[in-house]
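Quick entry between incubations.
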Amino acid sequence: MTHQEALTVLAAHRGDRIVLTTMGSVGIWPALSDTPLDFAYLPSSMGQGVAVGLGLALATGRDVVAITGDGSLLMNLGSLVTVANHPTNLTVVLIDNGLYEVTGGQDVVGARRINYEHLAYAAGFDRVYIFADLEPWQKKAAEVLSGPGPTFLWLEVDGERGHKTPSPPRPMAEQIQRLRVALAQ
Amino acid sequence: MVEPKAAVSHLEAAGFTHVVWIPDSSLGPWESALVASQKLQLIRPCREGEAIGIAAGLILGGAKPVVVIQCTGLFEAGDALRNVVHDLKLPLKLIVGVRSYQAHLAGKSTDNCPAFTEPILRAWQLPFTILPDVDDAGFAAATWELADAPAAWALLLGE
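Done. Structure below.
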């Protein structure tokens, strides 16, 4: 399954959730979904996407999807414990490509050897899903996103080198303004 | 040091909605009052940079959080602070306990935390107020100042 395919399925089921994208996903997501509830967290502080998503979920009470990469999650693994212990409808989506993609494709430590399912359960998640192939992910996507949160979704995708560093679809101030307007409605 | 119930009462009165914290030994006694608060939701992250990320999401979602940490955690959280204050330009509010501050002022501490806290905040271009002695009236006034500041601000508490 490619990164693009994994996100295409997610976009088809996004509904009216707030979707926060980080790193390489920022370069793909706007072509799939670009509503005011799609928030490209770029420029970012690497590893903080899940934390920002948790704050959004706590403040709004809405369903939130936070898409992170494996390199980013490893920078802030404790965030899984925090999310699992603060009830929200936050879905943490791990795009695991084994690479620091936006810097040219260097290996992440422990690439393809880390059991994120075990980590998520150990952190306290009750709902954990894993997909490495497109078809089962397509079949289960609605179920994954419709259940009570918090949820951890591990999507193993192909590692792709040579991508350019992504740019956000619009300036941060504009993103924040349109998100706030959408949340106020 | 301000009494824990009074401290929490002042945070409530100032309009904060969430306390995102990793306590130190001086701030830790606030916990019971924070848990008992009907107006503040206590959020417990694992590290201070994460606390700032959570606060950013809370602000984006319309809440008014305050991050309560020790200066050592501030040192850890630099990139998160830079991003939230200068990239996202969100009105992040911090209460930072400065370890050994009073002993440092008296020349009786070898702890280097007080020497670095204020220069680091200046380097990150984050305005701050410092309360060398944290009495009730001073904390109340400083908390209002913190809450009302239109942009990011830190309140340092001398420990």
